[in-house]
Amino acid sequence: MVTFPKTLHRWFQSICLGALTAIAVQLPGKTAENIFFTYGPIKLTVRVESLERFVQDGTVDSNLSFLFNLVGASEEKLTKLREIMGLRAEVDPVVLSNFFNTSLGEDSLARAAFILNAPWGANSKYGIRAAIVQAAQDPEGGLSLINFIRKYPTDIHFQGEVVEQRARAAQLLVNASQHFIQKMIALSEIEAASEGEIDFSVLPDPTEMGPYGVAPKETWWLTDQSRNRRFYVDVYRPQRWKPDKTPVLVFSHGLASRPEDFDVAAEKMASYGFVVALPQHPGSDILQAKALLNRTSRQGYYPTEFIDRPKDISYVIDELERRNASEFGDRLNLTEVGVGGTPLAVMGLWPWPEPPSIGIFWNQNVKSVKEYLIPPSYYSAML
After folding, report:
1. SS3 content of the chain, % helix, strand, coil (to 5)
2. Alpha carbon distance 263, 219 (integer Å)
3. Which of 1, 193, 222, 310 is the most buried (most CB within 10 A)?
4. CA distance 341 to 235
5. Angle CA(177)–CA(12)–CA(113) in degrees, nearest 5?
6. Quick one: CA dihedral 79, 153, 294, 23, positive or negative?
């Protein structure tokens, strides 16, 4: 039996099996005859018909046996590989095709073509898209990894160096995310320590409405002339005012969502004395998602939303400031604002000592941002 150094052995285990399973996640779903794995001078060939028999009934012929022995695949891993390769995803082929016509979809295809070493240059993404969509349209095989391989118009090539490069890039993103999470946890722990222990048992029951009632919802249409951007904001206020300043909460909806999706939670907050503002974010809301599905737009969201969403929040606070005296009796506390929703919305209100280099987000009226971190059980009850 061929033997390899321990480090190379581990590499083949992650590349030969990992590459197959990774595609199952990214590109489930032709009639390729062979799959080639290369790394430097080493070249391995797996016949597609061998994989088909393996997925169908678990048969491991001599072609697959050599590869599986080489990487030291256990019975457990082989069972999992067979399951992943045959796993069928129920996806509407029309929706799938529409997604691949977006800039995000085309970028995903280009990345896949690079990993698969597709031979058609800039047109490689179209061959991959065709194989995926055809697999999704197949009533028998459906969208699965093995059916994608059947539909793929040529042999598949995995270059070990390329896969290794992509794996390192992915690990870098994972490490960066973990670093950010740890930093946020540390900051949260510092803030929690300064405020002392919170006895949640004495807090109001979020399943019940608060003592201040809820006035009918108001919808304001706003136009930020500086950005030529028009959007609406749903505003909830209590029926009866608190004796002191009224706290303000601005909530930013998520991708492909809308303010109305959070009306129940907003009513609950208003009943406890808050004024709650929920702005629409055109360009990344439910209307944009529908435009994508209806093929009237090639974008699921616009990259400019990373700038416009924080600016929307800041503009809403400015509008509350303009209306504070005339419509709220100067009751609103707009120097300390609660913000909920996406992190980039909070970024637009952060009280930097000076406006940062991206300080176009900065709202100078806000002296302090309060992030209301509601426990999941509380939030679920509010909804």
Report:
1. 50, 15, 35
2. 12
3. 310
4. 16
5. 65
6. positive
Q: Which DSSP string corresponds to 285-315?
A: BHHHHHHHHTTS-S-SS-TTHHHHHHHHHHH
Amino acid at 36: F
Counting beta carbons within 10 angstroms of the beta carbon of residue 54, is it exposed (0 to 12), middle (13 to 18) or buried (19 or more)? buried
Lowest mean pLDDT among 5-9, 324-328, 377-381: 377-381
Residue 91 structure tokens = 């996806």
308 to 30, 246, 278, 281, 284: CA distances (angstroms): 43, 27, 15, 8, 10
How far apart CA 372 and CA 203 sit, in angstroms, is 14
Question: Which pair of tokens denotes residue 98?
Answer: 């529409």
Distance CA 220, CA 223 (A): 10
How does pLDDT run across 359-382, given as a tens digit for each residue? Answer: 333 444 554 444 443 333 333 444
Residue 319 pLDDT: 96
Residues 6+ apart with CB under 8 A from 185: none
- Give me the numbers of helices (H) and strands (E) for the chain, helices first please: 15, 9
